[in-house]
Amino acid sequence: MTKLKVGMISFAHGHAHSYLKSLLELPEVEIVGIADEKSSRVESVVSKHGLRYFADHQELLKTDADAVVICSENVNHAGQVIAAAEAGKHVLCEKPLGLSVAEMERMIEVCETNGVQLMTAFPCRYLAAVAKAKKAVEQGEIGEILAIKGTNRGTAPGGWFTEPGLSGGGALLDHTVHVMDLMNWFTGSKVTDVYAYCNTLFHEGLEVDDAGMIHVKFANGTIGVLDTSWSRPKSFPTWGDVTMEIIGSKGHLSIDAFAQSNMLYSDSLGKGVSMFYGDPMDFYMVKAFVHALLAGESVPITGLDGLRSTEVALAGYRSVKQGESVAIS
């Protein structure tokens, strides 16, 4: 069996644990090691799975890895993607892809120049409810999409996510990109105008925004609105949600992507807990990345997809600063 050799760079983002689990479940993958400047973040998984540890990601890039998965702080994505591409490694990068349009364009350019593929980590495309809704739209079951109302509300993640120098923004950046990618994917169009609101309403003393609403207009005339707020308290039974109400010229689609769940009520936990039993979106996304590379095919979610969703969030911050709608060229 031909195997894809994969390394991981940073466990700063919690999604790294799920991505590692997914890689370990794929027999066609060989994990060459994990790089993280903070050994404390990875020592348990390195020890548990007998993996090689690198204190410097540049050392990992000197190995015979075919690809790397990057889950570092947002501010480090660009530099690490570019370094990986220059080392001839394909890349799966955590969202948001970058912190400026210019650096994301540079990331895409360097990957293309070096003949490697760049995939943005948007696992929500692999949720069953989302995938089935996309198929219904493609089959014309609701006609032309006229408007989309979405939510990606969650609890405040804490840690480096709330440090502007590492995250590049708050809830408006963190929670715009997933559902905006779905809106881009469903409409097949590009956002041209953005009007947004953000503030710090739920967590006193936070250095970044924890509340956000973003309104968009697409080139094909579709309009959208998205609640990106970290508005869920710690006592809430889930981390958050991904929903979309899609209004078509011939019908309507209502998507609650994490509705496949049981509720657990336990005094020892102190609160009700939602236990999701739906398909593992991270596994299917990682599997799609691996299979595309092994088959010599294009990755299903590109760096350009990552740019298209992130540029909307960045335009949202400009809109807030200017107090008016802003255009995206």
Automatic annotation (TrEMBL):
Locate the Gfo/Idh/MocA-like oxidoreductase N-terminal domain: which residues? 16-121
Q: Which Pfam families match?
A: GFO_IDH_MocA (PF01408), GFO_IDH_MocA_C3 (PF22725)
All copies of the GFO/IDH/MocA-like oxidoreductase domain together span: 131-253
Where does the UniProt annotation place the signal sequence? none
In its UniProt entry, what is this protein called?
Answer: Gfo/Idh/MocA family oxidoreductase
Question: Mind giving the lineage of the organism this protein is from?
Answer: Bacteria, Bacillati, Bacillota, Bacilli, Bacillales
